[in-house]
Amino acid sequence: MSSSGQHTRFAPDRGLTGRMVGTMFVIGLLYVGFTGLLIALLRGAWPLIVLISGGLFVAQFWFSDKITERAMGARPVTPQEYPQLHGTVDRLCALADMPKPRVAVANSDMPNAFATGRNPQKAVVCVTTGLLRRLEPEELEGVLAHELSHVAHRDVAVMTIAGFLGVLAGAMTRIAMYGGFLGGGRNNNDQNAAIAALVIPLVSMVVYAISFLLTRLLSRYRELAADRAAAQLTGRPSALASALTKVTGQIAAIPTKDLRQAQPYNAFYFAPALSARDTASQLLSTHPTLEKRLEQLARISAELGR
Asked: Which Pfam families does this entry report, sorted A to Z (predicted)?
């Protein structure tokens, strides 16, 4: 994997690169190990398992950005429709010396933004109508710089793949359970089938739990890294801090039903879709606390002041 921020003026982040490589290595090992276990326990069905696991992985890698965009309601927009938005992205891309991603808008009152795409050439940066309505131009610039740093550091692709492998383990288990592969085929006696029926779901749960925790840890770190990179690129950490405070406060007031619909995609958002009451969710949140993010921006502000 290339070092974070390669070919752009976004500050490289070795801590982020190390964590991304480590996360992908561990999750890749888990995935290979889990597929190997399925092949060992379901000997007669191994060609189908390899086909399904390989096919799903390739599909995820190539189409994840499109799936995410569609699920989050992103619609590509032209510079004629949103001149200020495009202008800000153009300016930031020139400042960061990076290719301009596609620009999209999601029709949602929840003030938020996200970036997705497997590489900087295929990336899309999306903001909600709720965000555009509420933020001042310099606050919007801070949010967009944060999202563009995710694209430059390539952590979007890592998060997408890492998050998917846990889900894939569950999908393969269901296919094995309900596809009749645990029945007593020619190569399997009833005892083997019983062992497989017990072991596979347990291992699947462990794979999911480990990948869930690893992606949470990586996600929290990458959000702090994006805040840091955005503040350093724009030289205005206070504008980003102001946007963060505003967005987090306004999200808490969005109806719970709308927040629940957005929560599966929290790892991609600028700020998580959580109400003020979601304390349990905050413990397992994809993002560091608002206090921690503001603290870091205050430190950067002091450093820039010196």
From this structure: Peptidase_M48
Question: Does the annotation count 147 as an active-site position?
Answer: yes
- The structure's pTM equals 0.85
Task: Identify the bridge partners of residue 113 per DSSP, sorted by sequence position.
Answer: 127
Q: Judge whether 287 is annotated as a binding position.
A: no
> 7 or 16: which carries more pLDDT confidence?
16
Q: If residue 103 lies in a helix (H) or strand (E), which one and from where to where? A: strand 102-106
Task: Let me know if residue 50 belongs to a domain.
Answer: no
Catalytic residue among 81, 147, 295, 303: 147
CATH of the domain at 95: 3.30.2010.10
| Residue position matching structure tokens 């979601």 | 278
Asked whether residue 279 is domain-assigned, the answer is no
Q: For residue range 169-201, what is the model confidence (pLDDT) as tens digits?
A: 777 677 666 665 655 444 556 676 777 778 878
Q: Which residue is it, tokens 């967009």? A: 144
State the residue range of the domain holding 78.
Answer: 74-152
Does the annotation place 223 within a ligand binding site?
yes
Task: Say how many CA atoms lie within 13 Å of 147 toward its Cβ.
Answer: 30
Query: Per-residue pLDDT tens for 48-76?
Result: 777 877 787 777 777 777 777 888 889 99
